[in-house]
TrEMBL record:
Residues 64-388 form the Aminotransferase class V domain. It holds the Pfam family Aminotran_5. It comes from the Bacteria. Keywords: Lyase, Pyridoxal phosphate. This is Selenocysteine lyase/cysteine desulfurase. One of its GO terms (molecular function) is lyase activity. It comes from Spirosoma utsteinense. PANTHER family: BLR3095 PROTEIN, CYSTEINE DESULFURASE.
Amino acid sequence: MIAEAAPLTEQKHLFSLPVGIHYINCATRSPFSRAVEQAGHDALTHHANPFGLHPDDFFSGSVRVRALFSQLIHNPDPERIAIIPSVSYGMGVVARNLPRKPGIRPGQHIVLADAEFPSDVYAWERVCAELSLTITVVAMPTDFPKGPAWNERLLDAIGPDTALVVVPAVHWMYGLRFDLEAIGQRAREVGAWLAIDGTQSIGALPFDLDAVQPDAVVCAGYKWLMGPYSLGLAYFGPAFDDGIPLEEGWMNRLDSNQFHRLMDYQPAYRPKAYRYNVGEQTHFIQMPMLETALTQLLAWQPERIQAYTKQLMDPAWPILESLGCRIEPANGRVGRSHHLVGLWLPDHANPMAISQALQAQNVAISARATVLRIAPHLYNTPADVDALVGVLTEVLM
């Protein structure tokens, strides 16, 4: 029997955050851990002199990162992971290959959640025009709790005329969870593809690829994966095995590590998702940083990150609710997450003005639409929560 891992304690000592700064904003960008920072410095030093660089060195770092990310999402086949620069790139791959989907026909629709991040929306405009598809946006309920009803609305929107469902595990503004297992099952029943934006969840919230069975999972690396900007990862399932990439990178072809034969042009791609790697996917400086970050996340475990952020923030919610704020209840797979929470302010409050008041007191959160987005991690302590509550108490009373 495997012993359950011990609960995590705060890990602020592993980061270089200045004293007096209360950074509760991992949903915007994660700070680097000291280890990730050092990996970047080491890579810069190492590659200042390229003497002795071997062809396989252009591939080995990404091989390790794909394996680590596969462990994180419980993917048994790292060859299904591609190196991408952004969510828009990964969703662009899905859009590029949607015309190849078996059974695609004019009049079908793409299902999106309301107020989704732009990279999950803009990708479909051109393909909808080309294929005569429409977009169905599933509105968020106005009443609390919002999560169960929103999930039901989304499931109801998926039917025989659905070509594609695009949904996050956690909404990027509100922190509301979507039941990916139920959505995946419904999509498979009607023959729709399922593309998941894991940017605001993977790394801090457990994700089981086999339970969800998506066709694509796209994830930026600079938020909850705690790596560098402009480097991300994507899973592409069997539906994409013979698909069309966004670019024809030479590294994505068979035997591309045999530099002495590169002029023997190779029509065949490396297997599975390798064709979707961005050009120059080696990222000599950034890849070691992402590798270090993923190694640390696997040691921490997303389950324990959820537990820590829940325990950290739980004392704050009753106080903030007494000031007229609202939060979604924690309600399993259809409630709020604990690492990213939307705080609905009283009607009279101005989210941007409150965000500025918090910034003036060195408290970093994000204002998104009518909510404050609070996104704690292991580097946060009760002192950070006290600072947040103190400023909100002062400006809302």
